[in-house]
Amino acid sequence: MNVTRRSFLRGALAGTAALTISPIRALPRALGASAPANGKFMVVVNLFGGNDGLNTVVPTHLQPYYDRRPTIALTSGLLDLDGRYMLHSNLTGCKALWDLGELAVVNRVGYPNRNLSHFTSQNIYSYGVRDVASNGDGRGWLGRFADTYCTDPNEPLGIIAVGTGRRLDFSADAGESLVLSSVDGFRFEEDSDFRTDHALRLRVARNILDREAPPAEGAALTVYSTSRQAHELVDRVQAGVTGWTDPGTYPDNGLGNRMREISRLLQGRMAFNTKVFYTGTGGFDTHSDQPGRHDNLMQQVDGALEAFANDMKTRGMWNDCMVLVISEFGRRNYENGSRGTDHGHGNCFLVAGGAVGTAAVTGELAEADLNLEYPDFAYDFREIYSDIMTNHIGVDAGPLFPESFTTTGDINLLA
Fold first, then answer.
1. For 111-189, where are the E strands, in sequence order?
2. In this structure, are strands 79-80 and 85-87 parallel, antiparallel, or unpaired?
3. d(Cα 401, Cα 51) in Å, to the nearest integer?
4. What is the Cβ-side half-sphere exposure of residue 115, based on CA atoms within 13 angstroms?
5. pTM confidence score
6. Which pLDDT tens digits describe the chain residue by residue (415 residues)?
7. What's the CATH number for 34-183+254-400?
8. Among 163, 266, 143, 206, which Cα is nearest to 3's?
9. What is the 3-state secondary structure (H, E, C) of 327-373?
10. How far apart (Å, rounded) are the C-alpha atoms in residues 233 and 157?
11. Are the CB atoms for 320 and 39 separated by under 8 Å?
12. Fewer CB atoms near the end CB (10 Å): N or C, the chain?
């Protein structure tokens, strides 16, 4: 959404929900460490609905996979990873990254005491806490990152979410995340009654902010401070993307367009010092008619990831990048009566980037795992998050996850 100058000139809080920043706080930020300005960043791609990991990274060496999925098991066109696990046939871009040593797979990712509710499982991932009632603090894992490592008021864009809305991941005490649908939409809207003098009115509003002394306290100070920050952020974002050129390779679909927007924002990455970009796409709750639906979803995901990887390589950013593809849970081992799969648990994550150390599949599946209702988890999702945050972004991941969790020591995704 956009901000009207009429609302601003009436004293509205320009920069709150109307700017899709919720809210820009006029309070002092808590003192803390800043994320290192090393150019490293991660992109989280969330496949909402519960992606079928077994038909994404296929365990072709395990007979129960075929026995329990007589009509939806994938049997042709698969892309070989290591002679045992194979990628879906539409993940050709991901296979190219694997061949270059720039894609890793982690199977059996989840959390203790499985929950098959979309909402509960998504909340667990968002908060970074399994027992939210006892161990949560009301903040998301990225909100804690913002509170701890994005405390420099000159670097307010440590986390940027594109096209996801304001998820619980970004809930914070003082730190902020920039949430937008598109870069072009992040601007001040023209007043429909005064379109011809939009530029003049905007200049007047900014001149007022520049010349007037801040109010001493109270609501007036909040209006003044949030309005100033809103104007500064709009200017900063629009200036940061100046000079970006479209490679023309991003697919024209939801995820493709969002990954293109992240590329635009990365044009100003050193000025923003953005460390985490968050986006996603939906449709993965494939209870019925899964084969055709999932084929199309895999094609969309692959096209967006391939375009982004090639774009980052052209811009010299790929070696600083880690892309983490997640989903709130996997699916059942067996197909249901509607040629689909129902909610499961342990799932596969994909990790791509020039910073990936080795193309490898971590997390073995055995026949016994596929004879269960669904694979259990072996790797807590927070172990993967922590590995990237610590070894790639370069911060202590401890403050992000207040609840203890079991680590295996097997996760080593970086070069």
1. 159-162, 178-180, 188-189
2. antiparallel
3. 24
4. 15
5. 0.86
6. 444 433 433 333 333 333 333 333 333 344 456 788 889 999 999 999 999 999 999 999 999 999 999 999 999 999 999 999 999 999 999 999 999 999 999 999 999 999 999 999 999 999 999 999 999 999 999 999 999 999 877 666 899 999 999 999 999 998 888 888 888 866 444 445 555 554 555 555 555 545 666 655 555 544 444 555 555 666 677 777 788 999 999 999 999 999 999 999 998 776 678 999 999 999 999 999 999 999 999 999 999 999 999 999 999 999 999 999 999 999 999 999 999 999 999 999 999 999 999 999 999 999 999 999 999 999 999 999 999 999 999 999 999 999 999 999 999 999 7
7. 3.40.720
8. 206
9. CCCCECCCCCCCCCCCECCCEEEEEECCCECCCCEECCCCHHHHCCC
10. 9
11. yes
12. N
Single-letter code of the amino acid located at 411: I
How far apart CA 69 and CA 184 sit, in angstroms, is 45
Residue 279 burial by CB count (10 A; 0-12/13-18/19+): exposed, middle or buried?
buried
Q: Where are the domains of the chain?
A: 1-30+185-240, 34-183+254-400
Antiparallel, parallel or unpaired: β 347-352 and 3-4: unpaired
Contact yes or no for 95/82 (Cβ under 8 A): no
Provide the Cα torsion 181, 144, 106, 378; round to 10°. Answer: -140
Element (H, E) at 323: strand 321-326
Residue entry with tokens 């905007």: 202
DSSP 3-state assignment of 22? coil
